[in-house]
Amino acid sequence: MKSALIVFWKEIRENLRDRRTVINTLLTGPLFAPLVFVLIINTAVTREIEKSEKPLPVPVVGAANAPNLIAELKQHGVEIKDAPADPERAVRDSDVDLVLRIPADYADAWNKGEPAQVELIYDQSQRDAQGSVARLQGMLDGYSRRSGAMRLIARGISPAVTTPVVIAGRDQSTAQARSGTMFAMLPYFFILGVFVGGMALAIDTTAGERERQSLEPLLVNPVSRGKILIGKLGATSAFATTTLLLSIFAFSVAGQFLPTEKLGMRLEIGAHFALLTLFVMLPLVFVLATLQTLAAAFAKSYREAQTYLSLLMFVPVIPTLLLSVFPLKAQTWMYSVPLMGQQVAIMRLLRGDAVAPFQLWLCFACTTLAAIIVFLVTAQIYRSERLAISA
Amino acid sequence: MIEVRNLHKAFGTVKAVDGVSFVARDGEITGLLGPNGAGKTTTLRMLYTLMRPDAGQVLVDGIDAATDPTAVRRRLGVLPDARGLYKRLSARENIDYFARLQGLDAPTRRARIEALIAALDMADIAERRTEGFSQGQRVKTAIARALVHDPRNVILDEPTNGLDVMATRAMRTFMHKLKNEGRCVLFSSHIMQEVGALCDRIVVIARGRVVADESPEGLRAQTGAATLEDAFVKIIGSEEGLAA
């Protein structure tokens, strides 16, 4: 084990002297992802809130045809604008979010007591406009209901007659659960941090060593290749673990600046969350470090290794995508699948949901098993003759 | 002492080494001479256990490389064809890394490294990071780390490759020093002048086989050629790949 330690400390020392590696491990990896994450959520939330409070500008065609309706809309915060010459086209080209058209026969129909038609021109595929469309639709519905009720009362009928069923929604999601859906990407950001943190060393200790022709002299020493590999993996894992620690810490700090109260949410990002996240992530760090080393060991040059590792980086996205496309109920078997287990566990911890200790242990044990398997495969490949030859 | 018995190694259908046998004795410099692609590097790689021979046996001081490769590596000092350094470590740190991997204790390490820095005349570069070293400085560092454990047997693969005249002379002097210390020195080259000037014994390899195993004088006598160069050409059967 002594030789493995010698290799370990040499790799640590050498790579600490590389400014690019240190920046990647200590800054880019751990800080970039959580900060971008917080920034995106902050912007999205603030925009939504601003939108619902801001006056809603609505271009209207034929505003003069329905003065009462227009007055009512103005009261609810609508800013009446002049309509573009070709409303349909303007909406299609996304020049305006929506256009309200009031036909000339509106007043006739209204006076006769027939349904008076107004046209709402919008584009369903424009996500950004959906909020505005829903707001205006709500206002128009409200105006219609109120006017209808007035007419009934004028005829001596209770407006309740027209609403045989009332729906009363009772949202059962807790505040933490609501935030959970928004934070489905968070585990991936942690995994990404680990990936970025270990990448430089995984490449430097294998393909890099081969590219600079130092692998062959190293292997001539009376040290088994398994021990050399353990030392190198240890160094890669140490860097990746540092990144993980920093990124959990960075998220705990940055998370305080999320506008969670505005959304009525609460996040569990205290010491409890950090420790349990670390617990389920640690064996995964070793799996990823070994996988990176395995992929880089096939490469002849630094550049080739970078290509392989970039492709490998897509693997951890798979469970994240699966879980966001098919929001499966968290089931016990999921904890036994590396990557997916971490995803589910971190999500539930963040939402403040209970995760049974045996589920955490299952996640830890299965990922550790995966780490051992990946290590044995890598060690086998590391022993091959082809690996040592530089040219 | 290094003994090689009937080594074979094929890559796919290409027979890189096809029945090589020779002995390199202690206190002698043995030259492995042959054109480019003759199988020199592959033979050496099997000697220092980086590759496993398909058939045949390698004995270093009587230890079989197939049964105890670690013990064999302990008895060998190797300057391989690939001689990259860790550029973010100083020359001394590069040497120290290998000294630790050889399992030397701290006082031995310090003494050996000082001795090698003096012997190779590299005191001025010892504390510098190896990034930006000249070819000569790199080879010195690579040799120092290869010999840090004071091995009885020294294998050098094309040691003067890429060196200028001064560095080449220094290298030859150093090899003589190793020989006078009673070590077994085995080196490969495709430069016949070098081999002629240095060797006590010359093993000529062509197309994966040993075609001659003689002293320089014996080689001339055997072929009846006036100069070593003519002797080589006669033995190898063509002038391809040989540099004067």
What does this 3D model show about the protein?
The complex is a heterodimer of chains A (391) and B (244). By secondary structure, chain A is mainly alpha-helical. Chain A contains 16 helices and four strands. Chain A has helices at 2-16, 19-53, 67-75, 87-92, 106-112, 127-154, 175-182, 186-211, 215-219, 225-254, 271-297, 302-312, 317-325, 340-351, 357-382, 385-388, and strands spanning 56-61, 78-82, 98-101, 119-122. The longest helix of chain A is centred in the first third of the chain and has 35 residues, at 19-53. The mean pLDDT of chain A is 84. Chain B is an alpha/beta fold and 244 residues long. Chain B has helices at 40-47, 69-74, 91-101, 106-119, 135-146, 165-180, 192-198, 216-223, 228-236; strands at 2-11, 14-24, 28-33, 55-60, 63-64, 76-79, 153-157, 184-189, 201-206, 209-214. In chain B, the strands form two sheets. Chain B has a six-stranded mixed beta sheet with strand order 6-7-8-3-9-10, with helices on both faces. A four-stranded antiparallel beta sheet of chain B has the order 2-1-4-5. In chain B, α8 (216-223) packs across α9. The two termini of chain B are 29 Å apart. Chains A and B meet through α1 and α9 of A and α2, β6, α3 and α5 of B.
